[in-house]
Amino acid sequence: MPGPLRLFMTCDFFLGPSGAGNIHLKEIFGQMRKLGCDASLFAPQAISKRSGSPGMVFTPTPDLPIIRHVAYQLLLPWALLLHALHKMPDAIYARYSQSTMFPGIVAKILGIPYVVEVDDMLPELFETQNKPRALIMAAKVTTRLNCALADIIVVVTAPMKGMLVEDYGISADKIILIPNGANTEMFTPIPRSQARQRLGLEKNRRYVCYCGSFERYQGIECLVRAFASLKGGFPDLRLLLVGDGPTMPKVRRSIDAEGVSDTTLITGQVSYEMVPLYINASDICAVPKNPIKTGYSPLKLYEYASCGKPVVASDLEGFGFVERERAGSLVPSASPEELAGAIKALLEDPELAVKMGENGRKYVAEHHSWAGAAKELMRVCGRAK
Fold first, then answer.
1. Per-residue confidence of the chain (385 residues) as pLDDT tens digits?
2. Does 216 share its domain with 339?
3. What is the 3-state secondary structure (H, E, C) of the chain?
4. Is residue 129 in a domain?
5. Which of 27, 49, 80, 196 lies at a C-alpha separation of 20 to 30 Å from 379?
6. Which domain covers residue 159, as residue numbers?
7. Domain check: are 91 and 121 in the same one?
8. Do 206 and 110 share a structural domain?
């Protein structure tokens, strides 16, 4: 009788307490182990921060950006080969980065399948960040090499699959779509008053919440302008911004310019475990986004809905279920007027807001849990054996 699936998983970034990449990887890893997969996760760790968790294999590296990356890439193949002597994996699953060809080479040496997860197109990302041309070209080369080495490629959005097929000539047959999800046990509805009490928030206010990173592709300033236009009609309304990132100074300037600093609460970065409290303390949750070529498979959208909150989101690739399942409203990107109108409609119809929240919770629990994503990934890796 065959034993449990044995899987070596790799990433080349420090595993922190927050961030979409961290959450995705740790949730998939944890859920697969719960489901009986014998998974080992290989990751770098600063020499000064030695610690461990079951199934995690940390490679000590200097906590210096460039040296850390080079050291880890040199050590990772040997760590994989050494652990394979103890227990041969059925497959290697790599979180894609510019250097994930090394796990692929090890997989070929061991004669086992190599599965690559692509959750962002690095060449296109580097172009939007105005990175040096040489770095963009290097990313394109490594993307082609990784895709050539891979037996199966997992993507989180349909546009990513299209880009790999059209721009890189990858066969569509070896690309599998497994969208992001939410931890539906952790992100579950709790009484709003209870969440507010634990966070020290005023109970007689109404809150529009944004949780996530402060990046250029997020439309947080659009949300600020929408909120400012609602302030006069809803004096009890507050804007709750949870997170941090590069555009925080710009967002703060927008808040000051719109004259809503006295009715806006900014928490800064909070731990992953605290996020469900902030979502549950809110009345409406917003996902304002700017268009990107890769499309979206937004963690926060699933987490909002999983907590039973009505959602107002940008009408972009990956958000269609919001209106299809009547879990909220979609509005044109970068339109504060439309965003304000959708929020206003929910504030004026609390019963509709509750019903939309219930619809969203039901849909995410059935179709976008991390447990479901982990099951599908295990099936894919098992099929590749």
1. 467 899 999 988 767 665 666 788 889 999 999 999 999 999 887 554 555 577 888 877 777 766 777 788 888 999 999 999 999 999 999 987 666 688 999 999 999 999 999 887 777 777 766 778 887 788 888 888 888 889 999 999 999 999 999 988 899 999 999 999 999 999 999 999 999 999 999 999 999 999 999 988 899 999 999 999 998 899 999 999 999 999 999 999 999 999 999 999 999 999 999 999 999 999 999 999 999 888 888 899 999 999 999 999 999 988 999 999 999 999 999 999 999 999 999 999 999 999 999 999 999 999 999 999 999 999 998 876 6
2. yes
3. CCCCCEEEEECCCCCCCCCHHHHHHHHHHHHHHHCCCEEEEEEEEEHHHCCCCCCEEEEEECCCHHHHHHHHHHHHHHHHHHHHHHCCCCEEEEECCCCCHHHHHHHHHHCCCEEEEECCCHHHHHHHCCCCHHHHHHHHHHHHHHHHHCCEEEECCHHHHHHHHHHHCCCHHHEEECCCCECCCCCCCCCHHHHHHHHCCCCCCEEEEEECCCCCCECHHHHHHHHHHHCCCCCCEEEEEECCCCCHHHHHHHHHHHCCHHHEEECCCCCHHHHHHHHHCCCEEEECECCCCCCCCCHHHHHHHHCCCCEEEECCCCCCHHHHCCCEEEECCCCHHHHHHHHHHHHCCHHHHHHHHHHHHHHHHHHCEHHHHHHHHHHHHHHHC
4. yes
5. 80
6. 6-181+369-384
7. yes
8. no
